[in-house]
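User: We ran a pulldown and think these components assemble together. Before we commit to crystallization trials, I'd like a predicted model of the whole complex to look at. Sequences follow.
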Amino acid sequence: MVPALDVRDLRVHFLLDEGTVRAVDGVSFSVEPGKTLGIVGESGSGKSVIGQSILRIVPSPGKIVRGEILLRMENGQGEPTQLDMAQIESHGRLARSIRGKEIAMIFQEPMNSFSPVHTVGSQIVEALRLHADVSPQEARNRTVEMLKKVGIPQPEHRIGAYPHELSGGMRQRAMIAMALVCNPRILIADEPTTALDVTIQAQIIDLLKKLQEEFGMAILFISHNLGVISEISHEVLVVYFGRVMEHAPVDVLFREALHPYTKALLRSVPGIDTPVRSHLATIEGTLPDPYANIPGCPFFGRCMECEGRTVCRDDPYSLTKVGPRHFVACPRICVADFA
Amino acid sequence: MSETEVLLELTDVKKHFPIRKGVFKKVVAHVKAVDGVNFTIRPGETVGLVGESGCGKSTVGRMIMGAYRPTAGHIWFKPDGKQRTDIASAEPSEIRALRPYVQMVFQDPFASLNPRMTIREILAEPLVVNKVVRGRALEDRIRELVELVGLKIQHLGRYPHAFSGGQRQRISIARALALYPRLLVADEPTSALDVSVQAQIVNLALEIQDRIGLAYLFISHDLGLVRHFSKRIVLMYVGKIVEYAPAEPLFNRPLHPYTEALMSNVPTTRPELVGRRIILKGEPADPINPPAGCPFHPRCNYAQEICSTVVPELREIEPGHLSACHFAESLNLTGCDALGCAI
Ligand SMILES: Nc1ncnc2c1ncn2[C@@H]1O[C@H](COP(=O)(O)OP(=O)(O)OP(=O)(O)O)[C@@H](O)[C@H]1O
Ligand SMILES: Nc1ncnc2c1ncn2[C@@H]1O[C@H](COP(=O)(O)OP(=O)(O)OP(=O)(O)O)[C@@H](O)[C@H]1O
Ligand SMILES: [Mg+2]
Ligand SMILES: [Mg+2]
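Assistant: Here's a predicted model for the assembly, 682 residues in total across the polymer chains.
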């Protein structure tokens, strides 16, 4: 099957005066229609920039310097074709017609994605009318209906609220409604449920799964909440310093993670067996210097398993297949003569 | 520090926001964001504030900061153990004088940092405005703060937009700690952080608490973290407290159906543990038009007739354990472990 989205060797760099930030540095993945790919990883590892590249809204001075972002389209005969989003004009008509309609994004920063001077409702209505040929009344009805689906109480009243009049979680739900109202084929959800309590979070996850079943929506779900990732994803991508460290089916990742970074992440969450107020496991050290260009494993120096072996520092980064749909970038696991 | 000493005390605090309509901006209704809340925070302890999205948690935080003036009630604050001030009725100058003692870290790190200031300027501002340190000592304190939250000295000259969400949240935490406050209102402080950084911040917060006796009001949707971190927990539902208890009794033997429903829905990476998930019927309550009787009754699986007519009082059911459910004694709700909640 032609995937809904096929990203190959994506590289997005920020050219700053002080140096080049390799925010995304050779990332590949694909998502089938109706499936969810979860993305987890260190704060600053490039997750949001991956999402922004797909929509072609990377802020300057960021540039896609290499790679393909193949979006599944249909030609006149209903046969699948692929459009390389990396090649199109980011401000052009084509890009604008795809954004919001074919691919929608729920942004990490709710305050920045609504204009403070217009009501939330009018902004959703406008987004809808931009892409769908509907009457103002119809657009309003669909907006109210969508706000109801995401769990905003009394949407007929709330539709007239300004962003600052809503709680953090309501703004987040309004943004989810705005992203879903045009029925996109691909949804990029960047930390979409951080401000929601667990009952509403469960409701949103349910809603996304339903839309997926009904319309075959493909989802890229970025989150730090491993529980949520585990419940919504089919596969998970673990990124670190702009690179994929591990890519696995969800049950494999949470039961048999192989990469030392993935394992360290999983250990950091307080669980049933963690005594209260005890010291939580952390990952020693910090991300490498943002301007560094690291040929080997970017986790070198923080890794508790390689014991400083030079092969980890020097062996060029590569992702190796270790099982069905399971890939790892760790020399300890993948280099034959690792000693 | 005696057990009975109180740093902050809220008594019957309310905040109603007017909703205006039409050309004359006539007030047509009120959002009862916070509707009669009582709780205390003792020096050096953590109180967790949990509840449905939109139930008034951030509004409580903002009132404690003096950013919103309560519609009714008192917020007594006693930063030095001697003199107490009612933040609810304090003059702006009094609130300014309290500023070093009570700080807040916000939910949305994107909205709370001035985009036109460098990180160095952002961290220097509270220190300079409150005349804490100058010159060489100022630079030292800034560096100390940056290292405290795990950022790099090289970052100081950059502007907020050049940081990821988690990095920005660390900056706001550093800024809040700059003045050695007595109380930190932390509104979803770690929801933008990856779990390893979150663990660092939690460790840091516990360490600071042990070292300088800092108290926290910890607002969070992450029940696992709340359990790890808090001594006592306040659970809110549409503007009211529905359960108020020390952490362990609350998690082991909840006395309000909303608490039970919350615990049963905690997402987990261990699907084998998941037991019964309590699905709440209907839609979230609306603070503009809260349900009559118990605000939770339209969604409650145990509701009976009295629940839709009589407002339940928040009552002490067991020593120190309060619930606002008519049937708190008889329901026998399921606790966290029995629900298979993996926290
Ligand atoms: N406008 C910008 N200018 C300079 N650098 C930037 C800009 N936007 C992002 N970056 C850098 O790109 C890297 C990746 O950022 P990104 O926002 O994708 O991280 P993230 O994985 O989404 O983190 P988080 O989990 O904290 O949201 C970071 O090092 C960040 O500093
Ligand atoms: N400035 C305001 N004007 C009008 N209504 C407001 C204002 N601020 C908050 N509200 C309303 O008050 C209620 C409580 O909001 P608050 O932000 O305190 O909720 P919260 O518990 O922090 O929710 P979340 O978990 O989603 O952050 C909401 O219904 C919100 O719409
Ligand atoms: Mg991000
Ligand atoms: Mg809030």
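Chain A touches chain B through 69 residues (CB under 8 Å). That may be worth checking against your pulldown data before setting up trials.

User: Thanks, that helps.
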